[in-house]
Amino acid sequence: MIKKVRLATVWFDGCAGCHMSLVDIDEAIISVAGRVDVVYGPLVDAQEFPKAVDVTLIEGAISSQEDLEKVQEIRKRTKLIVALGDCAVTGNVPSMRNQIQPRKLLERIYIEGAQTNKGIPTDGVPALLRQAVPVHQVVKVDLHVPGCPPAASAIAYVLGELVEGRIPNLTAKVKFG
Amino acid sequence: MPGQISIRIDGEYVTAQVGQTILEVARANGKYIPTLCWLESITPVGACRLCIVEVSGVNRLLPACTTPVQDGMSVTTQSEKLQAYRKIALELLFSERNHICAVCVSNNHCELQGMAQKLGVNSIRYAYSFPKLSVDVSHERYVLDHNRCILCTRCVRVCAQVEGAHVWDVSSRGIHSLVVSDMAKPWGEAVNCTNCGKCVNSCPTGALAEKGFAVEEMVKRDGKVTRLAARRGGQQ
Asked: Which structural domains are found in chain B, ordered by start?
């Protein structure tokens, strides 16, 4: 029996659209499912990021202190990291806050913009980083799959190649936006 | 024929006219050289550096759009080195401004985005500058979004050369450069603007757009501008 690929998916500062695109690969999901063990991610129950992961798909920009610490740990525990989608690859929409100081941004939204319960939430929410940045700005990324979201066909192709132990060639197959 | 010379492009002998650029001769002979700032029949400026080529005996890369051909010249249009430098030029353009394709009016119709796909640029190796830039919505019909501008100066050139209004210019230097209308007045107050829209239709990105268009809806038609320019004798 072929050894299954230990696959994790993570969701940082993004809209979950890339995960939607991932489950939108139609019948390709059947052949992929037979070749991978999904060991972590929003689609499964695991609470802690496991060790010895073969492939991690990262959706979202690195926006908070928590994202930063998590992604550094993920890098240590993963052989191959895929930045999935524009937020992970470029910063995309989350990076549109980067011209504004986080403090001013939060005041504008939670104090000036609030009708009731004015105040910046601090309990149970991580501190924002000064800027939302692409994943490769903080850890090494092995493969970039841009798109907002990446086309399901591109994701199916990437997974199909990765489970066969090949690095997909994405030239002309993907685009920003 | 007087003025006719012979040059080599990617090893192939082709004839050219004195005064033609490498790009013109390459295109006339079916050779593809990527371009962004170049616009047919408009004076070339060599701003984007995507059309760089290798010329034997010259130890630096030359922009094909502004380099005139010379008799006996041997030009290489495709090589690993050129591909690498073209990618660098493109990635620097992306890193300089806020090109958020997903929420841009020109998404899927953008020459910058299309070029990234064509050249296989899937990520930007340089840290993004995330500059704070304004959006000028003062014009009745059009919008100027500096976040998407690559300073190709097509707007500057078509306004001056085709419309004859010369509303646009580039202010400041280097990374601080900005296209400005009527000596840096809000576009809506630019009395020289004829509202013709040639700049908008020539703009390769979402930097200049018509009002009332949502994400992905802005389709540019630079053919109108270049045909008019060609009928008037083209670039001089």
From this structure: 4-78 (3.10.20.740), 104-231 (3.30.70.20)
Q: Do B123 and A83 touch (CB under 8 A)?
A: yes
Which chain A residues touch B116 with a CB distance below 8 Å? 175-176
> Which residues from A are below 8 Å from B98, CB to CB?
95-96
Closest residue in chain A to residue B132, using alpha carbons only: A99
**pLDDT per position as a tens digit, B25-38:** 999 999 999 999 99
Whole-number pLDDT of residue B11: 96
What pLDDT, on the 0 to 100 scale, is given for residue B120? 96
Contact status of A156 with chain B (Cβ, < 8 Å): no
Q: How high is the ipTM of this complex?
A: 0.94
| Whole-prediction pTM | 0.95
Give the CATH architecture of domain A5-96+129-163: 3-Layer(aba) Sandwich (3.40)
B233: left (phi over 0), alpha (psi -120 to 50) or beta: left
